[in-house]
Amino acid sequence: MLVIENGRIVEDGDPARLAAAPSRYAELLEAEKTARQSLWQGRHWRALRVEDGRVRDDS
């Protein structure tokens, strides 16, 4: 995995190793996780299901 910041390689290594250590890559993964959790838990989303060719609201 290459981590590039401001046009420069700042980290180079195995993704699992970088994710487990204090690294820019680990920070990126954590930021992505936080963003995903806050987006999907927002009130703007609702569960829909397609059943028998129709869209049904599960909320």
What features would you describe in this structure?
This protein has 59 residues and is an alpha+beta fold. The chain is 39% helix and 29% strand. The protein is built from two helices and four strands. The strands form two sheets. The chain has a two-stranded antiparallel sheet with strand order 1-2. The longest helix has 17 residues, at 24-40.
Labels describing this entry:
single chain; about 60 residues; alpha+beta; two-stranded antiparallel sheet
Q: Can you give the helix content as a percent range?
A: 25-40%
Overall outline: elongated
Which band does the percent of strand residues land in?
25-35%
Give, in order, the helices and strands.
EEHHEE
Give the class from helix and strand content and strand pairing.
alpha+beta
Q: Largest beta sheet: what is the strand line-up?
A: 1-2
Overall average residue pLDDT: 91
Low-pLDDT regions: none
Gyration radius (Cα, Å) is: 19 Å
Q: What kind of sheet is the major sheet?
A: 2 strands, antiparallel
How far is it from the N-terminal to the C-terminal residue, by CA?
41 Å
By DSSP (H or I, 4+ residues per run), the number of helices equals 2
Total number of strands: 4
List the helices and strands and how they pair.
Elements: E1 2-5, E2 8-12, H1 15-20, H2 24-40, E3 48-51, E4 54-57
Antiparallel strand pairs: 1-2, 3-4
